[in-house]
Structure to design on (179 residues):
């Protein structure tokens, strides 16, 4: 959490004493306003970054659970392909429920549109190359098994793109742009 507003307020308090009243256009009130605006901007950027990082954290958690169910051992390629298909089709049930809840003749809800976009994006990525941690080596499976859920720890894992045809290409994390 940004602290520049608190630091600025503390500095002004040291200089003048308690801040009971400041003139609207005084230097000190402008300093406080700038510090507050800076804090709000940093909070907005942090929230935006967290929102963009969330899908990759969910993806890593899904595959971590699969490795844990396998006892921390590496997985075979056919099992990995099935896990990818399961991950890609995880929203299908929710989409069908939303469609059933909609009355006939009504336009699609925002939730339904978002689910369609998410499913289409995952299917496209699955065809071109689905980004996953390396699950077929002992070392990487062990690292993923010990992962505690933080974004910074994901850089220590090796990542690959697995296409629907079974082609495996090394990749970097975090991904840059669309694939």
């Amino acid at each position: 959490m940004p602290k520049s507003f608190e630091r600025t307020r503390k500095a002004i308090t040291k200089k003048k004493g308690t801040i009971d009243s400041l003139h609207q256009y005084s230097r000190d009130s402008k300093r406080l306003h700038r510090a507050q605006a800076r804090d709000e901007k940093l909070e907005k950027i942090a929230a935006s970054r967290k929102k963009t990082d969330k899908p990759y954290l969910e993806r890593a958690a899904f595959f971590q659970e699969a490795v844990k169910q396998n006892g921390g051992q590496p997985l075979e390629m056919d099992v990995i392909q099935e896990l990818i298909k399961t991950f890609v089709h995880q929203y299908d049930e929710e989409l069908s429920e939303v469609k059933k809840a909609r009355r006939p003749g009504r336009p699609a809800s925002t939730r339904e549109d978002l689910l369609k976009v998410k499913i289409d994006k995952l299917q496209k990525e699955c065809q071109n190359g689905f980004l996953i941690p390396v699950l077929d080596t002992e070392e990487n499976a062990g690292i993923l098994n010990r992962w505690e859920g933080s974004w910074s720890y994901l850089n220590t894992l090796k990542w690959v793109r697995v296409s629907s045809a079974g082609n495996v290409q090394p990749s970097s994390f975090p991904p840059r742009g669309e694939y």
User: Anything to note?
Assistant: The radius of gyration is 24 Å. The beta strands are 130-133, 159-162, 168-171. The chain has six helices and three strands.
